[in-house]
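Lab channel / #folding
Pinned by the channel admin:
"Please post every new chain as: sequence first, then the C-alpha cells as a reply. Keep commentary short and put observations after the output so the thread stays searchable."

First post following the new format, from NK:
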Amino acid sequence: MRRTAILVVLTAITFAVTGCVTDDFQDIGEMFTPKTPREAALEALDPYNADRRREGVVLLANAPFGGAEIYLEMYRDYVENETDPLVRAAAITALGRHGGPEDAILIVPWLDSSVTESQNVRWSAAKSLQRLHNPEVVGPMIRVLTAEDDDGEVKAAVATALGQYPEDNVFQALLMALDDRRLSVNLNAAESLSLLTGQAWGMDRLAWIRWYDSLQKASYAFNGGRDYLYPTYSRDKVWYEYIAFWIQKSQEEPSQPSGLRPESQRKTWSNDGSASEDAIPESS
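Reply from TO:
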C-alpha cells in the first residue's frame, strides 16, 4: 500500500510538471539518486560545460570531504580564473565554507563592482567573508559599505561581516550605514553595532553617537561586545525529501569564523584526515 501511494504521488507530480511519463520518471529517479563523489568531482572539472562545473562545485562544497586540499586548490583557481560568474560564485562560497583566513584576501576583491558586475559573485563574496576572519579585509569591506551607490544586498551582507571586527573605523562605518536608504542595510548595521558593543540603541544613530561620545576612550566601546557567530541558512524539507527518506539533510549551526575559533575546533573534511579514494577522480 505504501509503495502504491508513493508511486501515485510521483506519477501525479510528473504529469503536473511535464505531462510526460516515460522520460520524466527517469529524470525524477536521477534527482533522487545522489551523485557519487567521483561523479561530482568530474562534473566540477568539466572544461566544456559551466553548468556542470557549478553543480559539481556545489556538491563538493556541501560534502564532508569538500575541504580536502585538492578541492581547495580547485576552488581558489576558479575564484581567480573562472570566466563564468555562477561558477566563480559557487567557488567563492565553497572557499568561504572550507578555506582559512588567508583565503579572505583572495575573495575580498570580488566585492568591488569595478572588478565584477555580477551580483551573484559580489553577494557570495560578502557572505563568505562572514565566515573568514582576517583584519586585512576590513578596509575593502568598509569602502563597499560606505559607498554612496551600491547593491543593497551586498552592503547588508558586508554590514553583518563587519560585526566580527571591534575596531573604531568599523564602528564609524556601521554608524554611516544606519543612514542607508535600504532597511536591510540599516538592520544589519544595527545588529553588528549591538554585537560589537553590547549596547542596544537599534537604528537610532544619534543615540549611538551620544553613547560613544560619553566614553572616556574610544576603545571602551567594545568592552561589552559579544562573540560573533556567522549566520547560517535553514529551511524546511521540500516534498521529495519526505518521499526520498534515504536523503539525509543536516542543518548547519552558527559558528565562529575561521581565524577566530581555535584550530582544534575547525571543521574537518574527513574524520581521519585522508581523502576517500572514491572522492578524487583519476587524472585523465
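NK: The radius of gyration is 22 Å.
TO: also worth noting, The mean pLDDT is 81.
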